[in-house]
Sequence to fold (452 residues):
Amino acid sequence: MELIPDGTRIGRAKRSLYERGGTRRTQHRVARDDVDDNWRRKPMRPKLDQELKNIIDLERNMPTYQEMLEQKRASVREVDARESARLREQGAILVDIREQDEVDQGIIPGAVHIPRGFLEMRIEEAVRDRDTPLIVYCAGGVRSIFGAEALSDLGYRDVVSMAGGFGGWKASGLPWRVPQTLTSDQRRRYSRHLLIPEVGEDGQRKLLDAKVLLVGAGGLGSPAALYLAAAGVGTLGIVDADIVDESNLQRQVVHTTDRVGMPKVESARVAIEALNPDVNVVKHETRLDQSNVLDIFAGYDVILDGTDNFATRYLINDACVLLDKPNVHGSIFRFEGQATTFIAHEGPCYRCLFPTPPPPELAPSCAEAGVLGLLPGTVGIIQATETAKLILGIGEPLVGRLLTYDALEMEFRELRLSRDPECPMCGPGAPTSLDDIEYTDVGCLIPALAVH
Ligand SMILES: [Zn+2]
Fold:
């Protein structure tokens, strides 16, 4: 063989040989001679060729979407909207598998919502018993066929798909509503609430719709206001006639040094709105008395008593009993605090526990009494927690229980309380108005408990 140092020429000749099959040796040589582009011209090896052919055949035989839908339709039972409504009355559960943006436009009340992508993952949380009849629906009745089959595959024995979907339900004149939903900003802000099943989106909506009145923007009202605002209580009313004083800042954390001299209700509004723009702050810059208490309380769901004097505590109690509003009570004195929740006629009221205020000589003014600055933080947040539980309808409220807190001993105790059958406010013959009741301020000492 003639040796030609010009690799290109050899390469071309050998390539031609290689393309016809060639020998291993010539393939090797050609590959080495003309390594840059030889691989591109390499014919498909028989094995690869067959594999490609198989894939093409497979694709040719794959059902189209329409064919697949027809196959599923044959295996999934479909019922129309009216039949679905009838089945639901008999105990079937509606499973809405639409996406969130579709659900935002309208829902069937009582339906369980699980977007299609999460259906297999979450259905067991929502429906444990696989014998429970399920009606799956989407917007138009197509996705629900696939959804219903997926649930059957998971072992649910009685699954149907609603033909016509949500659109068909609406067109049949069956009941539906536009849900109150959270915005995407709210979903991010309250994401840690949404993760707790006991709160979730429904609970967050309840908080946002709730109206809580804080009586006093002081030691107890400050932490309560901040935490209730952070949790997303939508309306916070604040009653306070005072202005921020330097001596308040040791414990009244809703106020700041640069707001000394500002009305407390305004200072609290600034802090709350900076924390959470979802909260509507209603300022009541006034002293609560017999003439205004019923009107102010009427607009709220829960009253949080953060006052520091007996006259106002009795006034709040009596108004709450008359209006049938929950009264979340807290009081503080030096190193000791107390908290309880009064729900009229379900448990005792404040007058059941403390029928009469202590004599004035035993009740120093709050300025004289003094309080550890950290104490109201603990008690105010217990009150805020009680308030949130009442709004959400979860847990056991402190009804008929007085929680006492000793900061020095770091000790919580609980006293069981019962109603006074002769209570002047919630017993028989109780007044129906506040007109004839006398309220006198006697200071801020915690009075002795009544012994029944
Ligand atoms: Zn009572």
